[in-house]
Amino acid sequence: MGNKEQDARFKKFGTVSFTALTKVNDFIDHLEEGKITGTKCKRCGKTYFPPRADCYNCFNSEMEWFEIHGAGKLLTFSRLQYAPVGFEGDLPYTIALLDYGDYKVFGRTDPSIPYEKLSVGMAMKTVATKTGNGQLTYMFQEG
Ligand SMILES: [Zn+2]
Question: In which element (H, E) is residue 139 found?
């Protein structure tokens, strides 16, 4: 897979406020390996998701990757009837925010989970997956 393709993928992620920086494009490689990753500041230990190349807390640029695993708590969720350009075909889908303690992960819930089954506080895990057209992504499943 060429870099051009990776960058195009990251553009798609940009619509959910991912940083399209070359430095954090490893995120896509990790996703391909089935891992969802964020960055952690080597100096102050602050964790970021989506991954950031620089620490907002102490302005350090030495970051390391960490893997998001285990369950987070469903903090909030919302069913979308309108989607950003490029996502119209997916409607309706549910966006959600999982609380992992030190960081939060924004994404979509597994479309096979009925909206009625979702409730604030339930445990969910973040899993790597592919969209119908083969693009890499991740979603939340019951944890
Ligand atoms: Zn820092």
Answer: strand 136-142
